[in-house]
Amino acid sequence: MISDSRHETFADDMDGSLWRFEADYHGRNFYQGPAVFCEASELQEVIRATTVNLQWDQMGNSGLVVYPARRKQHMVITKESPAGMSILEGAREALVSPAVLYSLANQGKLPGARRIGKRIIIHRETFLRWLADGMGE
What is the model's pLDDT at position 74? Predict the structure, then answer.
């Protein structure tokens, strides 16, 4: 297991928490490290319980697995981050195909999405909040 300060901080924050903690989780995309398992409705609480940037995967009907985000894979909102993002950026963030987001946007069901000419732009903060809230589930 590769250990770094993000993993150590996350492990310290989550060990002994309300959620099931696993110190050496083996997940998608070759991830290996600390993780917690929670229900989608508890995701905001998990996010607030640590200072580490997180990513999560749906575990079928059994909830979410939450773990430290890779440094370059996931976006972090900073003062320098643009307010808008493309469908492709949103799809990378949500770990879904762009077709899913295009479909939702065309149905008017993608929060923060606006058509500007031929492009669809997503308001970053609104979209990330929607993801964190369970994508409308």
Answer: 45
Report the alpha-carbon distance of residue 94 to residue 51 in Å, rounded: 20
Residue 76 scores a pLDDT above 70: no
Please list, in sequence order, all residues whose beta carbon lies within 8 angstroms of the beta carbon of residue 52, skipping any fewer than 6 positions away: 6, 9, 10, 13, 68, 69
Instruction: Work out the average pLDDT over 99-121.
Output: 90
110 near 104, Cβ under 8 Å? yes
3-state secondary structure of 57: strand
Residue type for position 21: F
- Are residues 64 and 39 in contact, defined by beta-carbon separation less than 8 angstroms? yes
Handedness of CA 70, 71, 72, 74 (dihedral sign): positive
Give the domain ranges of the chain: 5-68, 84-132
| Residues 10, 52 contacting (CB under 8 angstroms) | yes
pTM for this model (two decimals) = 0.50
Residues 6+ apart with CB under 8 A from 71: none
